[in-house]
Specification:
Number of strands: 12
CATH class of the largest domain: Alpha Beta
Number of helices: 9
Structural class: alpha/beta
Order of helices and strands: EHHEHEEHEEHEHEHEEEHEH
Largest sheet: 7 strands, parallel
Shape: elongated
Length: 245
Amino acid sequence: MERIAGRRNPLCVHFKKLGIDKAYRESCREFLCDGLKLLEDAENAGAEIVSVLTSSHLPFPLPVDTRVYMTDSGIINSISPLKNAQKVLFSCRMPRFTERDIIAGVLLDGVQDPGNVGTIVRTANAFGIKDVLLTGSCADIYNPKTIRATMGAVFRQNIRYMTFSELCLLKDKGIRFVGASLSDNSKDFRDISLRDCVIAIGSEGRGLSEQILTLCEEKVMIPICPMSDSLNAAVAAAILLWSTK
């Protein structure tokens, strides 16, 4: 196992750029993850792990073609874009999803907080909802903060960015969209079935865009106390996704 002793090593430079530069991630089709638990999740899910940089012994085997390097914790701390960096950094190849029929899922429209996006991905996984669709100015799913918030679900979900035109094609195929909205004509979510549909969640600041609202056959709301302004996007998504079961 090769040992890396300097921060200017090409792998260290590569990992640093993967952690902070979305355009670089997309050009390489590779993304950065941190932590032994995430590494185990990636391995169990069959993700394509490219390189691993660790300051401690790995307690489980990796595929023989995975490049594993030793270093010290100081170098890992200097490379990781996250606070409280763990003892393992690794990169994975971005998956390429094949086309298949979407029946149910969650659509995130302009949800910009990485923690919220990651939590919703994790919640969808917990409730067996495979498809997570992203549109508008959503947080990058391959931002290390988003990945950490998914708690490994990023490796088990079908996550795709889609344009409005692509979403319209889904609607033309018969996909039912239901939007979470505080508009006057929204129904109590408990009064309609949320099975076999794509639930659209907007940002906390502005909600769903007008474009996405035009896709929605129905709009639903979660009743809250009059003195409360709104729910956190991830909390609202959790309530509605649980209601699909």
